Amino acid sequence: MSIKLLSVASEIYPLVKTGGLADVVGALPAALAPHGVEARSLVPGYPAVMARIGKGRRVHRYPDLFGTPAAILSAQADGLDLLVLDAPGIFARDGGLYGDAAGQDWSDNALRFAALSRAGADIAEGALKGWQPDIVHAHDWQAAMTAAYMRFGPAARVPRVVTIHNLAFQGRFPASLFPRLGLPPEAWGMDGVEYYGGIGFLKAGLVSADAITTVSPTYAREIRSPAEGMGLEGLLNGRADRLHGILNGIDGDIWNPATDDLLARRYSARALGGRAANRRALETRFGLDHDDAPIFIIVSRLTWQKGMDLMAGAVDRLVAGGGKLALLGSGDHALESAFLAARGRHPGRVGVEIGYDEPLSHLLQAGGDAILIPSRFEPCGLTQLYALRYGCVPVVARVGGLADTVIDANEAAVGAGVATGLLFAAGDAGALDAAIARTVQLHADRSLWQAMQRAGMRCDFSWSNSAARYAALYRALIAEPA
Q1: Which residues carry a binding-site annotation?
Q2: Closest CA to 115 of 165, 155, 64, 188
Q3: In this predicted model, what pLDDT tens digit does every residue of 89-116 receive, in sequence order?
Q4: Coil, strand or helix: which one is 161?
Q5: DSSP symbols for 50-81
Q6: What is the rounded CA–CA span in Å between residue 113 and residue 115?
Q7: Given this chain, do its domains 3-249+464-479 and 272-458 carry the same CATH topology?
Q8: Reported confidence tier of residue 482, pLDDT bands at 50, 70, 90
Q9: Using one digit for the tens of pLDDT, what is the confidence trace for 117-161?
Q10: Whole-angstrom distance, CA of residue 130 vs CA of residue 133
Q11: What is the DSSP string of 396-432?
Q12: Largest CB tally within 10 Å, which of 341, 392, 425, 440?
C-alpha cells in the first residue's frame, strides 16, 4: 500500500537552509520512496524558495491567514514535490529565516509559523482538491503546531508525527497570543498549548502527536532526564511509549568523495592518496603551513551548546601539542572574536573563516585529518557523518548521536580494526585536551590512522535503514484503531 505523506518544515535543502534540519527534510522524501511512501513537503514561501519554484500552481487560497492574504502553491524543484505557503506579508523579507540581519528574531515569528502549521492542518483536512495525506510529519517547533491544529480540528483522525531535531528550541510565546491562534478554548491547558503560563509550540505538538521521534537513540534517552529534558522531561516520560529515536542519515550522492566535484581531487577508501591534494588546497585556503602536522577542522555554529567556548580555550594547547586548526563557522560574536584572535596569535597554524560556505565545508572534510565536535549536547549531528564518509576522523563528545555513530579508538577497538574516531566526556576542558593529544599521537602512526579512516568510510549512514524505520512507523500508526 502506497502512503501519502505530508511533511511540514520551516526549511528544506537545497532550497533554503540554516542547519541540519534542512538536510534531513530535503533528503527524507527520496529515501522514503523505495518504501512506498509518496512525500509532499510544505514549506514557507521565503524569497529563496519562490525564486527556485518559479510561478507554481495555486491549489488553495486564503483571503486572510493571520492578517495576510496567502495561497498554497504546488511546485517541483530539485527532485522535491513541494507545497509552498506563499504569504508575502510574513515571509517575503530580507534577512534570515527566523530573524533580521542583526540576528534579532522576527517579532511575529509566532504568527508566521502558526500560519505554516495552520496550512498543514488544512491540507490534512482536505483543503487540496484530489489529494489528502494519510499521515502528517511535522518537524521542530516551527511546524509542531500542525499536530495541535489537527488534534483540535476535523483532521484529528489523520495520524500525526512530530520530530524533535533540537529540544533547546521550543517556540515559547506569551499567553496573550492565544486568542489570535484560532484554536478552540479547550486547546488552552496542560493537555494543550499552555506551557508554564505561556504558549509552547513544541510542547503543543508533542502532547498532540500520535508518535514523537527524535534523531538518535541516545538523545531519545537523554531528553527524558532533568539534565537534558529542558522542562519537557515530564511530558516525554509520560509519553515514553510513543517516543522513538531514529538516527538521521546523510545523502550519499551529495556527500561522496569519489564523485564530489567540489573537491580539489576525488578519492575513495581504496585510494586515499587523493586526499593529499585536498589537504594542500585546504592549507592554502586557510593560510596554514604546508607540513605534516595533523589538521583539525571545525565546521560549526559557534555557540555554547556546541562547546565552542571550550574549544576557544583549547586552541593554544592544540597548537603547542603539534596540531593545526581550520575553522568555518559563525555565531556568538565573542567566540568569533576569540577564534580570530587565535588566528592572529598563531599565523600558519590557525585559519578561521567566519560564516558558512557549503562548498568549503566539503573541502574541509576532504582535506582535514580530524574534525572536532565538543558539543555539550547533540541530538544527532551530521558533520561527524560527513567526516566519516570523507575519511576525516571524528573527535567528539560522548553525547547523543555522536555517541551512537563514532567508535572510540580504545585498545580493543583498534585491535579489532573497528575504531572510527575518539570520544571524550562532554563539557570537560581537560577531557578535550586529552582527546586532542591522543589524536596527535594516533595520527603519527600512519598505518593505524589509515585503518581508522577506512573503517569510518566503510560505515553506512545512508538514509536506507532510517527511512525503513520511518515507513514502518507510519504504517503502524495508520493501522491503529481510530
Answers
A1: 17
A2: 64
A3: 999 999 899 998 888 999 999 999 999 9
A4: strand
A5: HHHHTT-EEEEEEEEETTEEEEEEEEEETTEE
A6: 5
A7: yes
A8: low
A9: 999 999 999 999 999 999 999 999 999 999 999 999 987 899 999
A10: 10
A11: EESSHHHHHH--B--HHHHHHT---BEEE-TT-HHHH
A12: 392
DSSP 3-66: EEEEEE-S-BTTTB-SSHHHHHHHHHHHHHGGGTEEEEEEEE--HHHHHHHTT-EEEEEEEEET
pTM for the model: 0.91
- Residue recorded with cell 538518535: 216
Rg of the chain in Å (alpha carbons): 23
Binding-site residue numbers for ADP-alpha-D-glucose are: 17
Percent of the chain predicted with pLDDT > 90: 95
Please, which pLDDT band fits residue 382 given cuts at 50, 70 and 90?
Answer: very high
Q: How many Cβ atoms from other residues are within 10 Å of residue 156's Cβ? A: 15
Q: What angle do CA 5, 466, 22 make, to 5 degrees?
A: 65
Q: How many residues does the chain have?
A: 482
The span from the first CA to the last CA of the chain, in angstroms, equals 19
The whole-number pLDDT of residue 430 equals 98
Domain range 3-249+464-479, CATH class: alpha beta
Whose cell is 486568542? That residue is: 179
From residue 228, alpha-carbon distances to 103, 121, 167, 355 in Å are 26, 30, 9, 29
The x, y and z cell numbers of residue 429, run together, are 576542558
* Dist. CA 86–CA 184, nearest whole Å: 26
Backbone angles phi, psi at 6, to 5 degrees: -105, 120
Which residue stretches of 287-357 are H helix?
A: 308-320, 333-345
Q: Could you give the angle at the alpha carbon of 267 between the alpha carbons of 34 and 408, nearest 5°?
A: 75
C-alpha grid cell for residue 236? 516525554
- pLDDT (mean) for 32-54: 97
Q: Give CA–CA dist 143/54, Å, rounded.
A: 24
Give strand pairing partners of 38. Answer: 4
Let me know: does 422 contact 397? Beta carbons within 8 Å: no
Q: Which CATH number is associated with domain 272-458?
A: 3.40.50.2000
Place of cell 559563525: 330
